[in-house]
Write a structure and sequence with these properties.
Elements: E1 9-12, H1 29-35, E2 40-42, H2 51-69, E3 74-79, H3 82-91, E4 99-105, H4 113-118, H5 123-140, H6 147-153, H7 156-165, E5 173-179, H8 191-201, H9 210-213, E6 218-222, H10 254-267
Helix pairs in contact: 2-3
């Protein structure tokens, strides 16, 4: 077991999936962090809520966790859209006093050039696809899904507008990480979107290119020690298994990456 962080970790999931007791968004990652001495809590916000509705939910969750633990602050690790939800809670909803650090994993801070192109489809088509997704997510437990508004926040124009309204809070330590697949077929679950994104933006993790996710204290592109790379699904341990059995430069198990993040936060006094 490693040394304990000063503050608990709040894991904030991305879109299209919910944390649940029996099907955790984060795979083996929470258990590995707990073995390492970390106290783990979950955001549990809607999988496809707007940043405003999810941000409000997370603000309440932050108050709940700090009251429950007695900790004055939290370390937040957020994946994908979860990073935007948290930035809204910190900046617009003034939750910065409760947050020691925000680590974003493949969060589309600058929007997606690919989404810019997809939103050129007729609006009724975008609304139809979004509406169908909302129906399914309500069945899965979302209270206020709004896929149409979520799609739009991923455009580059809306992302930059969001950034203007949600600047970094000076008292919070921010850092960001990017990942890429080595080939579009590296993860067949991501083959189609990875191919589309590569056409418009180049190397990506199946959904997002490094250009989109680089934010304050950008720590670079995390690589695996195989020629497979790391996909958007791999980033949260979807398969519940090591990336590779190979040794060498780069990571072979995504849980090792999160332990390294926790260790770095501890060294920084968080």
């Amino acid at each position: 077991m490693g040394e304990v962080l000063n503050y608990p970790i709040l894991l904030v999931h991305g879109m299209g999936f919910r944390d649940s007791k029996y099907l955790n968004y984060w795979g083996r990652i929470p258990a590995k962090l707990e073995e390492h001495g970390c106290r783990i809590y979950y955001g549990n916000q809607d999988s496809n809520g707007t940043v405003a509705s999810n941000g409000a939910y997370l603000a309440d969750k932050i108050r709940e966790v700090t009251a429950q633990t007695g900790a004055p602050k939290l370390n937040v690790i957020a994946h994908s859209k979860g990073g935007l939800d948290m930035r809204y809670a910190i900046s617009t909803l003034n939750m910065s006093e409760y947050i020691a650090s925000l680590t974003t994993i493949s969060t589309p801070h600058h929007g997606s050039l690919t989404v810019d192109q997809l939103l050129r489809f007729p609006d009724f088509m975008v609304r139809f696809v979004a509406g169908c997704w909302d129906i399914w997510l309500r069945i899965c437990g979302d209270k206020n899904p709004n896929a149409y508004e979520v799609f739009k926040i991923f455009s580059t124009a809306k992302a930059e507008e969001f950034n203007r309204h949600n600047p970094d809070a000076p008292e919070v330590y921010y850092q960001s990480y990017a990942f890429v697949m080595k080939h579009v077929w590296s993860d067949m679950l991501m083959f189609v979107p990875a191919t589309v994104v590569k056409f418009f933006e180049g190397p990506n993790d199946g959904l997002l290119a490094p250009r989109a996710v680089a934010w304050t204290n950008f720590r670079g592109i995390v690589t695996s020690n195989s020629n497979r790379g790391i996909s958007h699904c791999d980033e949260v341990d979807l398969r519940r298994s090591r990336l590779t059995r190979k040794k060498g430069e780069g990571i072979s198990d995504i849980t090792d990456f999160y332990v390294a993040v926790a260790d770095d936060l501890r060294r920084r006094g968080f």
